[in-house]
Design goal:
The complex is a heterodimer of chains A (about 120) and B (about 130). With about 120 residues, chain A is an alpha+beta fold. The longest helix of chain A has 16 residues, at about 50-65. Chain A has helices at about 15-25, 35-40, 50-65; strands at about 10, 70-80, 90-95, 95-100, 105-115. A five-stranded antiparallel beta sheet of chain A has the order 1-3-4-5-2, with helices on one face. The longest helix of chain B is centred in the N-terminal third of the chain and has 11 residues, at about 20-30. Chain B contains three helices and five strands. Chain B has helices at about 20-30, 35-40, 50-60, and strands at about 10-15, 65-75, 85-95, 100-110, 115-125. Chain B is globular. Helices cover about 20% and strands about 40% of the residues of chain B. The chains are: A alpha+beta (about 120), B alpha+beta (about 130).
């Protein structure tokens, strides 16, 4: 079986409401995700999206294309902050996936193992 | 960051995969496949049990901390309503003088002892300026 091909797709912009909903769902109320003043005091221009929420969005884009049973492993390196309003584009890379924001900045890279890899 | 926490078990508890929580997480993801995704990215673990327990155990300063990465090894999705054992341990600590890194391993097992998922989260904390080597 050959490795399935992932087409580049852009997820919906990440609104502050979705960030708040995610924080409520997982019980993560770190102020760096909600409090702009706190984020600025930490040297950031704005609050940042939870890393696991970014990861979940990447996983969801993969599942949408390949199906939920196809993805076996994901090792995602967060390479830059993701901010409210960012729209992430997930595209295929030799090792798995690249994740860029709407400005073309690489914000994450992921090594994936999907079904089919174990046969190649 | 407390660098003397290597091997410390932060959480070892049984949890119920609560449908309302899964649906809340799916709503935040907000796509047609969100429910399938929400059954693979737990609402507990290093993010939730997680964020509070890990921050406290590692004594991280949130103003200097960020998440560097996350990995998942899936054996099957969670099932709504099932009870799972969640075990979270500090697997690795690295002191790079200007940065401290901690890898937290979370494993989820069924009540039969079947591994459902293994998850690793890497936290990075910048050292205090006074500790930094310039």
């Amino acid at each position: 079986m050959s490795r399935p091909v992932l087409a580049a797709t852009t997820a919906a912009p990440i609104s502050r409401k979705r960030i708040a909903d995610y924080g409520d769902a997982v019980g993560d109320h770190n102020p760096v995700h909600f409090d702009v003043d706190f984020a600025r005091a930490a040297g950031l221009p704005d609050t940042v999206v939870h890393g696991p929420f970014t990861t979940a969005i990447v996983i969801d884009q993969i599942i949408a294309q390949l199906g939920s049973e196809a993805i076996l492993n994901l090792d995602l390196r967060l390479r830059g902050p993701v901010f409210p309003g960012d729209a992430l584009t997930i595209s295929a890379a030799d090792y798995g996936v690249d994740v860029h924001n709407q400005s073309g900045l690489l914000v994450a890279t992921g090594v994936t193992i999907v079904s089919g890899d174990e046969d190649s | 960051m407390n660098l003397n926490t290597l091997g410390q078990v932060i959480v070892d508890i049984n949890l119920v995969v609560d449908e309302a929580k899964v649906r809340q997480l799916a709503a935040a993801i907000g796509t047609p496949t969100a429910m399938e995704t929400a059954l693979r990215v737990p609402f507990f673990g290093p993010t939730a049990a997680g964020q509070d327990s890990v921050v406290a155990a590692l004594d991280m300063d949130l103003r200097r901390a960020l998440q560097g990465g996350q990995s998942y090894e899936w054996h099957r999705p969670f099932r709504l309503g099932e009870t799972v054992r969640c075990r979270v341990v500090i697997e690795d600590i690295l002191d790079k003088t200007t940065l401290h890194l901690a890898t937290v391993l979370a494993e989820f097992y069924s009540t039969d002892g079947e591994l459902i998922q293994r998850q690793r989260t890497t936290f990075i904390e910048r050292a205090l300026a006074s500790q930094a080597v310039v």
